[in-house]
Model the fold of this input.
Amino acid sequence: MAPHFYFILFVPLVHRCLGVFIIGLGIKDMFSKNPVGFWANAETIKVKDVKGYNRASGLLFIIYGIIFVILGISLLDGQNTPYVLLSVIGVMVETIVIMAAYSLVIVKKYEEK
Done:
């Protein structure tokens, strides 16, 4: 079998699995009793409404995961197609947007002052 065949099968499958994992993290975060962390290796902010904060953070991860899976659809055409750039650039932009949304909206709304 050609290496192209493995790319068509393996990469989109891994991409979808990662997206579903991110969606699962969002669902877990929505129902967590303690404030969930957003940044890796950082202290969780002090929040005034834990349930609302967790729901907002979890929803952010669920939306991120759904868009992540949708952006991976372009990988089904193979690696030698310009549509792969849509996936790569789309995920970079999506990641920047999720960080901005967390910092500018969620933290400002739920952080204890």
